[in-house]
Each structure stands twice: as structure tokens, then as C-alpha cells.
Amino acid sequence: MIHFDNVTKVYANQNRPALDHVSVDIDKSEFVFLVGPSGSGKSTFLRLILKEERPNSGAIHVAGKDLARLSNFKVPHLRRRIGCVFQDFRLLPNKNVYENVAFALEVIGKPRRFIRKVVPEVIELVGLEGKAHRMPDELSGGEQQRVAMARAFVNRPMILLADEPTGNIDPATSIGIMKVLDRINRTGTTVVMATHDAAIVDSMRKRVVELEDGKIVRDQSRGVYGQAY
Amino acid sequence: MRINFILSEVWIGLRRNLTMTVAVIVTVAVGMAMLGVGFLITTQVNSMKDYWFDKVEVSVFLCSKNSADPDCKGKGATAAEMETLKAKLESMPEVEGVIFENKAAAYKNFQESSASKTLLEVTTAEDMPESFRVKLKNPDISTPVLQAMQGQPGVSSVVNQRDLLGGFFGLLDALRSASYVLAGVVVIASILLIANTVRLSAFNRRRETGIMRLVGASNLYIQLPFVMEGMIAGLIGSVGAAIMLILAKVFVFEEFQTFLAPGSQLQWDSVAWAIVWTLVIGVAICVVASFVTLRRYLRV
Q1: How high is the ipTM of this complex?
Q2: Which of A28, A76, B20, B151 has its CA 20 to 30 A from that of B56?
Q3: In which domain, by residue range, is B127 found?
């Protein structure tokens, strides 16, 4: 599903590569934690999957597509198959829960009848039934993140990328978030989650890929966060 | 394509950027009005030229008995000289026709065209010069005729009537050029304003566009609301320009035209054409300016 082959990424004006000859394979419906200290290359890894950045060398395949050969014109279609969740939720403050989720479908031109059908379903899936008409500022951090996950998943992507989704959320609420991610993963969606949260990684017992200074230093199935942290 | 969705985005954008949008509308209106006035003056000048140049002639004034012109040496043109001149004119390829105007006809014309009563009282038909009125095939090519007649025996002076109109048309041409230059300056100002408006709009909506990008909205979907904002501002501005052009026709050109011959007046169809052109140009400028700015400020 996601295939990195010897990928190196150096940002302009920086000597040290953000990713240094990284090769990794992530299969369909896998759940992968991406761990490592700040600046170790986790976010770069996720941005490369979305083709927000281009690698300096190496090949990346996502959902069977070679990103280097994917024209700019087709990048939006790639992104429709990838959902994204961020630490800062990125909801539209002037739209309610329903509208925020529906927005993701409206802007890719889905018919209204389809939107009316699937948005309530996905709101229920993330556990926000009955809150469809709340505004984001009326919700707790955990609930806002659930809205963001509903928006990321509403188009049934093949891959869900989560960049520190529990970073702004207290540990008790984080468990709920992880349950939703797990539920999404069980529908067959590949989930890649970058995180600092050792407790969560340890409790989930999923595959762990650890990055340090742009290199993969550990790739373990059913791993834990690691002793050093 | 969800038209409603795009339109609501456009409406939100216009409302958020109201002051800038108004500035764009005003500059586009003024710029396009100047351009339209330039078109109207051009049309007016052309129709006046068509009208007048059709009528202009080269006048070959002949010596009369008491002519003060040194070329005449105090003698009138003889019948033989007149015959030679007429034959020579008629043989020239540039000449379409030659009419002889005798003293009586010249006096009649003078009476009709001269406003001064005292001048009329002291002149008689005898004072009028005789002349050949030479009609040219192409009013633009008059030099050979002028050269051939200048200094011939019996010729007092040669006047190309077109030179008399030249000053007047020169003034109109200058007016037209001035309105084009002014239109150019205002159009540049409106392009810069549109660029700035789009930039502000892109900044205001960076959250929305960021999410749109992320969920895989196509470039068209992301950019269309911005381009349509520019288009709508351009359209409203151009409609303003159209109103100004109609007012210009009613209050300026119609006033001015009471002095003109009926055949050379500016017609409404010319105004309609000027409006169509300024509308197309105004909208096109706004769309292109928005689109080019978007490429810089909205990474897709």
C-alpha cells in the first residue's frame, strides 16, 4: 500500500537530510506507529506520502501509484484516497460538525444525496451521534478530533495518516481516539500514526517504525515505544 | 460540479473582502469607461472623416484681373490657360472630376457660408476668384495634383481643403489618445488591485483551501471561487462603465453632434459595440489577473 525505496529528502537550506535512505513497506490494512523524537523525519514521511513534498532520490509508491510519475493534475485524486488527521484538528470554526464533515465531500463534487446519506453514518462511527449541529468551539478537544477523523474517513480512504492525533488531548480521552482509529483500521483502511505518546504505543501492540535523524533505527511488529524514552 | 457550493464560497469571499471588491469595481468601471470613450471618439472621428473626406476637394484658384498674387503679374487667367489647366487636371490619374466654379457661383457659396454682414456688404461677385474644384479619387493622395498645379500660368493658389480639416481631426485624435492612455493607467491600477484582493482573499481563506487541498479537491474547485470573485467584480465594474458610456453618449456626444452634419453622427449601435467590447475586456482582465495571482499565492 505504501512503499518507500531508498528515499532521501533534503530540504532547501539544510545540510542534514530529513529522511536518509529510508526503505519501508506498509501493507494493506496494517496499523503502523511512526515514533521518534521531534525532527526525526516523521512529518516528512507523511508529507511525502501525500506528495506535498518530493524526495531528492528514491522511489515512493502509494496505492500502486509511482508518485514521481504522477502528474500534478492527478495529485488531488491521490489525496482523495488518503485521509489526514492532525494535532491541531484543522476544523472550520464557522461550520458545524455536520458541515465540517460534509465539506470534504462537497469540495470533491459528491452529490448532495450521497452526502446526506454518508455523513450521519460516519458521525455515528466516530461516536458523535446527536452532536451534528454543534459548532467546533462547543466541543471538547477529543470531540473535535473525532470530527476531524470523521472528515478524514468520510470518503472511505484506503490510507489514514494521523500526525500526533492525541498531541493536544488528555490521556483518558486519547483512549477513545485510539478506539476510533482502531475501528477505522478494522474496516480495512491502512493507518499510519506518528506519535510521541509512549503509553498509547505500548497499549496497542501494533507495528512500530522508529526514526532517528532521518534513518529507520527500528521496525518491529507488535512493538512498544522503546526503553530510551 | 456543485454550483451552489461554489457560489456560496464566492459570496462569502466577496462579503469578507467588501472594501477591496468595491475598489476593484470602481477602478474597472473608470478604466473601462475611458477605454469605451476612446472607442467612441475613434468611431466618431472615422465617421466624420468618411463624411468630410468624401467632400473635400483641391481648389485651384485662378488669377483674376486685380489679383494681388505676384504669380499672376496683375493679369487674369486667359481662356487658353484655363483650357490647358483643365485638360491637364482631367488627364491626371488621381483626379476623379473637375468642376469649374465661376465668380457668380463662388459669390453664392460665400454668401451662404459667411456670417459677417459687413463683409458681405463690401464684396461683390467681381471680387470672387474663379477656381477649379478638383475631386480626387483617393483623398489621401493629393500631392501630385498640388505639385502639378502650383506655379502654372494662370494659377493664383492651390488649396487642399483637407489641410483645413487637419487641425480639427488632430485635436480629436489627441483626445482619443489621451483617453486610451488614461484607460491604460487605470487598467494597470485595477490589475494591481485585483492581484491584492485575490491575495487577501487567499490569505483569509487559507484554512478552507488547506483542507480542500488535503481532501483532494481539484485545482478547479479550489481556484474557481477566487476567479469568479474577480469575474463578478469585473462584471459589475464593466456594467458601471456601460452606464457611464450611455451617459457620455446622451450628455456629451449628442450635445456635440448638433454641430455636425447628420451623416457623421455617432449612432447607438457604435455605443452598443463599445459596451460589448469594454464588458469583454473588463471581465477578461479581471479573470486573467485573478488567475495569475492565484498561481503565486495559492499552492495547489
Answers
A1: 0.87
A2: B151
A3: 57-138
